[in-house]
Design brief:
binds 3-phosphoglyceric acid; single chain; TIM Barrel
Length: 208
Amino acid sequence: LSPSERSLLDRVPVVPVVVVDDLAQAVPVARALVAGGLPVIELTLRTSVALDAIRAIADEVPEILVGAGTVLTPGQAKEAVDAGAQFLVSPGATPSLLAGMADTGLPFLPGTATVSEVLAVLETGLTEMKFFPAEASGGVPFLSSIASPVPAARFCPTGGITAASAASYLALPNVGCVGGSWLTPKDALAAGDWARVERLAAQAAALG
Ligand code: 3PG
C-alpha cells in the first residue's frame, strides 16, 4: 500500500469481518464482496483455515484488500504477513501487540474500548483504531461523547453492528467505517449463496 492508501477507514463504509470454516469458501466470498462493491475483507484468525484463506485470496483475488482480524499476539501478526495479509486488526491492544503489529510495516487497527486505551494508542502515534466490542462498550453514545474531548482519534467500530445500526455510527464525525459479520452469514457461506453475500455487500456499500 502506498502512504496515501494506508488509511483503512476511508476505503469502504463497511469492512466485512469474515469467519471462514472451509477454505473453499474463501475465494468465492471475496469475489462476491468485490462484486457487491466492497473491495476489502478482514479474515478473522479464528479458524484453522484462516491463514490459508488469506493466502488464497491474496493470490487469486488481487482486486480486494485482504487483511487479518482477531490478531491476538505478535506471532500471529507475523504469520498473517507471511500469508499475504495487507492489513491487521486486533480486538484489543497490549504494548507488545502494538509493537508486534507495528513491526510488520503493515497498516493496522488496534482494538480499544475505553478512553484510556484510546489515549494509549494515540501515544504511539496512531490515530486510527477499532472500537470493540462496539455495542457492548457503549456504542454510538460512547463514540459521540468522546468526539469532542479526544478529537484526534478516528474509529472503525465493530461488534454487534447490523445493517440497521450501521448508518447511525457512520454519521459520527469520529467514525470512518464500521466492521461487521452480517454481510457474510455462516449459512450463506455454507450454502455457497454468493448472490446473497453480493446483495448484502451492495446494501452496505450504499451506506457510503
Ligand atoms: C470482530 O471480530 O470484529 C467481530 O467479531 C465482528 O462483530 P460482529 O460479528 O458482531 O459483526
